[in-house]
Amino acid sequence: MTRPPTSNWRRWVLLLFTCSLFGGCGGGSAPPPRSTLSLLFAVFQGSGRNDTTPSEGDFLFLFFSGDVSLVTGKVIDGDDLQLSAGSLGTGPLSTLIDARSVRVRLGTGAGFLAGTDTVRLLETQDAIQDTSARLLDEGAPVITSLTDGARPTVDSLRLNGIPSELNGTGAAEGILQVPV
User: Fold this and answer.
1) Would you say the pTM of this structure is higher than 0.70?
2) DSSP letters along 106-127, please?
C-alpha cells in the first residue's frame, strides 16, 4: 500500500507560521562593527610637579592610535575605562584636546597608583568613537604614566632626506625654518 503524495504547500505554510512565532528564524542583527583604534598611553597629571597622587580635579590624559571624538551626551566613566585598582571617581569630565587625545578630569573619590596601575577600554565603552562614528573596541591595558608637569623640549634634531630645494640649492639657500 502506497501513501498518496502530500502537497508541499502545507509544509511551507507550517514553516512560515513557525518562523513568524520565533522572530523570523535565524534573524537578528549583528552588533555594529567596532573601531580598531587603540589606547596607546595614559598619563596622569596632578596639580603640581611633585603631585603623584590622583585626586579630584587632577587629569588623566588618554592618547589613541588614530583620530577620535567623544560621543555627544556620553561621559567617560567606570563603564568605559577600567583601572587595575582605584577609580576615576564620581562625575569625571572629559574633553577632546586634539584629534588623538582626550583629557579626563578626575571626579570625587578618584584614586589610583600612577606609574603602577593600568587602565584599559572596556567592551561596554560608549563614549569614544573614531571618525567613522564606530565605538572603540576594548583593548590591552596600558600603564598610567606620570608626567613631570613641564612642557616637553627638544634638545637636538636631525633631519634626513631633506629635498634639494631646502639643502642650499633652492630659494631658501640652505636655511631650514621650523615653526616654534
Assistant:
1) no
2) --BT-B--TTT-EEEE-TT--S
